[in-house]
Design a protein that fits this description.
Elements (H helix, E strand, L loop, with lengths): L1 E3 L4 H7 L31 E4 L7 H5 L4 E9 L5 E8 L4 H13 L1 E3 L1 E3 L2 E3 L1 E9 L2
Antiparallel strand pairs: 1-8, 2-5, 3-4, 3-8, 6-7
Length: 130
Amino acid sequence: MSITHGKTFADRLAACVLCVAAVSPLGASAAQPALKATCSAPDHLATFDETYNPNYPALASALGLRGTAVVRIALARTGRLKSAAIAHSSGHRQLDEAALEAARASTFRPETVACRGVEGEYLIEVGFDQ
């Protein structure tokens, strides 16, 4: 499974609650130390914390059903899963349900901008091949 990031830079900037540029006060020495980020990874994209691999439904496997389901997830600023739905069907209900189950069982780390979690929607591709 992989997360697709559909946000543009403009979307990320619009979502930024507090964007601060480092500005030196007038008359300050040029030898001022650089400002340090208050967290270890101030800006990063959403990722899986723990990935739950989908169970290939036994009947679907026996019938040779294959396909890729795309699941749209919405994450809270904390990384908590707010919702999951099929964005693009694999063409088989059993595979779509297994993809949703895998997305709901996985845990995530949210995107961060300036050390703050950002809500967002993402697409997860879940492939079923024999």
